[in-house]
């Protein structure tokens, strides 16, 4: 009507500043401004010390003239080797802010545009968005971890997972990957608020995020990051297949989706068995040869029998817990297929109605009358 009458359109009212709706609509811009302020803090000497803790990797080491590693505090050279410490928490928080901005960009320019064309319901749209974001991350995680595994030679030398433990010195690229891994699952908690997640979905998602964060942070803190690289690559490979199949299902690509779910049903249990095999090989056999009776916090050596039993048992419980819904799904699908076969068999053996006989009876009745 406004176009026909030549009147200007009425602009939609913007929500009040700092209201819930305002924060949800503009959370990416707000966090991007905060990140820019933190980066600009590197310019001034007064704020540079604070900004470095957020922007750069901490706890770095450089080699001296004798070829020995020493802390890089107060040195001009850029450190390449690092260890872990409490300052990594600030780096993870800064990376989580940046990931929220990236999440919003992917959501707005890729996921939302595709979902609008599909005309999905609210429930399916929420699951489509979740799988779209997780598929992007799984692909990045698999590619990045595979690159680091090949670079460190873990495929060709599996004994490197436990030899020369504790693995306190970490290359800068590996440390960056490990911190980004933890930052990704940290940033998923506020995304529940920003994406207006449904109440019934929140407990499942929180449990999913927490399990990833706890196991990744535990492996990083206990210097078991080498074995976590391989386990993470295997785990995210199966997750990538699942979320890709899920997206195809919501896009009504039924044949491709069924093919993807078939591949996932084959890959998922193999991944669980491989993770258990690698865990048993590392924690029971490999690290068991050089175990210590008590944890040595000074050197970062956590190769005690108690710690290894806790790690191996928690890993076993997690794989069994993941396999339980998978087993229920397989059993339910088999029961549905058997019911369909029974119904088809009943319909094929059902006798047709004796139309001819009825006509004969009616004719004989007329003759008698």
UniProtKB/TrEMBL annotation:
Quick one: a GO cellular component term?
endoplasmic reticulum membrane
Q: Which SMART domains match?
A: TLC
Compositionally skewed regions (Basic residues) per UniProt:
354-369
Q: Which GO terms describe its biological process?
A: protein insertion into ER membrane; SRP-dependent cotranslational protein targeting to membrane, translocation
Q: Which residue range or ranges hold the TLC domain?
A: 126-337
Q: What is the lineage of its organism?
A: Eukaryota, Metazoa, Chordata, Tunicata, Ascidiacea
Q: Where in the cell is it found?
A: Membrane
User: InterPro entries from the entry?
Assistant: TLC-dom (IPR006634), Translocation_assoc_membrane (IPR016447)
Q: Which superkingdom, per the lineage?
A: Eukaryota
Tagged with keyword Membrane? yes
Family per record: Belongs to the TRAM family.
Question: What is the protein name given in its UniProt record?
Answer: Translocating chain-associated membrane protein
**Organism of derivation:** Ciona savignyi
Q: For this UniProt entry, what is the primary localization, expressed as one broad class? A: membrane
């Amino acid at each position: 009507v406004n176009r026909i009458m030549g009147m200007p359109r009425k602009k939609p009212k913007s929500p009040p500043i700092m209201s819930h709706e305002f924060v949800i609509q503009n959370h990416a811009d707000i966090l991007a401004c905060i990140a820019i302020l933190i980066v600009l803090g590197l310019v001034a000497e007064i704020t540079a010390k604070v900004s470095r803790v957020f922007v750069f990797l901490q706890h770095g080491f450089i080699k001296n003239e004798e070829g020995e590693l020493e802390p890089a505090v107060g040195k001009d050279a850029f450190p390449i080797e690092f260890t872990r410490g409490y300052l990594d928490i600030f780096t993870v928080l800064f990376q989580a802010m940046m990931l929220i901005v990236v999440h919003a960009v992917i959501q707005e320019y890729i996921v939302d545009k595709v979902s609008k064309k599909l005309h999905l319901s609210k429930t399916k749209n929420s699951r489509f968005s979740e799988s779209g974001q997780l598929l992007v991350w799984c692909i990045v995680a698999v590619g990045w971890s595979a690159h680091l595994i090949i670079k460190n030679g873990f495929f060709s030398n599996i004994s490197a997972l436990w030899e020369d433990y504790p693995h306190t010195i970490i290359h800068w690229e590996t440390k960056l990957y490990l911190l980004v891994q933890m930052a990704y699952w940290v940033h998923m908690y506020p995304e529940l608020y920003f994406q207006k997640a449904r109440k019934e979905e929140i407990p499942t998602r929180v449990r999913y995020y927490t399990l990833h964060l706890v196991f990744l942070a535990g492996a990083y803190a206990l210097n078991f990051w080498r074995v976590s690289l391989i386990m993470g690559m295997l785990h995210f490979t199966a997750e990538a297949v699942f979320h890709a199949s899920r997206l195809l299902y919501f896009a009504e690509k039924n044949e491709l989706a069924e093919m993807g779910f078939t591949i996932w049903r084959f890959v998922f249990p193999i991944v669980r068995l491989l993770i258990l095999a690698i865990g048993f090989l590392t924690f029971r056999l490999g690290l068991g040869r050089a175990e210590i009776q008590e944890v040595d916090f000074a050197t970062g050596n956590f190769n005690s029998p108690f710690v290894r039993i806790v790690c191996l048992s928690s890993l076993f419980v997690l794989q069994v817990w993941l396999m339980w819904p998978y087993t229920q799904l397989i059993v339910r699908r088999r029961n549905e297929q058997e019911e369909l076969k029974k119904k088809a068999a009943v319909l094929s053996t059902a006798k047709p109605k004796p139309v001819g006989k009825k006509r004969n009876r009616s004719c004989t009745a007329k003759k008698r009358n």
